[in-house]
Here is the input.
Amino acid sequence: MKKTAGLMLTTCTDPYWNLAREEWLLGRLEEIPQILYLWQNDQTVVIGRNQNAYKECEVCLLEKEGGHLARRLSGGGAVYHDLGNLNFTFLARPKNYSVSRQMEILQNALCCLGLSCERSGRNDLTVNGRKVSGNAFYQTQTGCFHHGTILVSVDMERMRQVLRPSAAKLRAKGVDSVRSRVVNLCELDPSITVKRVKEALIAAYQKEMGPLQRLQEETSKELAALAEKYQSSKWRLNKADHSTIRLQQRFDWGEIELGFQLAQGKIQHCCLHSDAMELEFLEQLPACLQGCSFEDEVLVQAIQDLGTANPIEEKMKQDLIQLLQGEQDGERI
Here is the structure.
C-alpha cells in the first residue's frame, strides 16, 4: 500500500526550534517517506553550514535589536527571514527525492498566483530576472531535504542592514547591493500574502503527491535537545577563527576562504568558510590539509588525492589547486 505524503505546519517562529524540527523530521522518513514542512522565522539571519557568521552578518546589530543568528545543516549563503517570508522544506527518502520535481511544485504554486517564474543557476527562482526564492540542499544515506525561502513582504531595508554579502558575490551577480537582486512577491502583485502563498504551495504539493497526512507538532526531549544544539554558540559561531594566512576566492560554484594556522612551517589548523553547496567534498579539505607543510606542491598533492563524485566536484578540485598554486587572483591575507 502506498504511504501518504505528510504535511507539517507550525506557528512557531523561533529559528532554533524550527531548524530542530526540520532535522527531527529527517529522521522520520521511514514512517512517512515524503513530507512538506512550512515554517517562518522572526527577525533571523540563517547562514550556511560552512560560513563565517561575522563575515556574513552584522551579528551584534542583529542581536541588539532582538534578532537571531542561526546556522543550518545545508550549504549555500546567508539569508534573512522575517514574518514576510515563507520557508519550505521538502523532505524525502533518497528514492523519492527529486529536486527538479520539487522546483516544479514551487513554480506551479507561483503560477497559480499569476506569476511566471524561472529557475536561475542551481538554486534560485526568479521573476523578471529578480530573485524571489533561494534554495539549498542536504542529504544523508537515509534522507534528503530541499529547503528554501519565498520572499512575500520581507523588510528589505532590514535585510540590507544585517546582511554583509561579499563584494565578489555581488559582482558575480552583476548587481551592486543585496537589495537590488531580490524582490518581494507583493511588489509584483499587492494581493499576494504569505497565507495565499502557503495555500498555493500546499495545493501544488497535494496535486503532485495525492492526499496528505497532517502531522502534529511535537515538543519531545529529542526535539528540545536539537533546539538547544542550534541555539548554542558552539554551533552558531564555531566557524570564526584567527588564522595567520588566508586564501580567498570566488568561483562559479561559490566563494571559498581557507584559513591556516602554522607552526614551524606546517599547518596546525585549517578553517574552511564557503557558501558552496557541495558539502561532502569541501568538508574533506581541513582534515586533508592539516599537518601538511605549507608548500604549494605538498598542498596541491593533498587536494589531488581527494576523490570526487561528479564533474562539479572535479571542477572545484582543479580550481582549488590553481588557487593554491597562485594561478588565480585569490586574496592572500
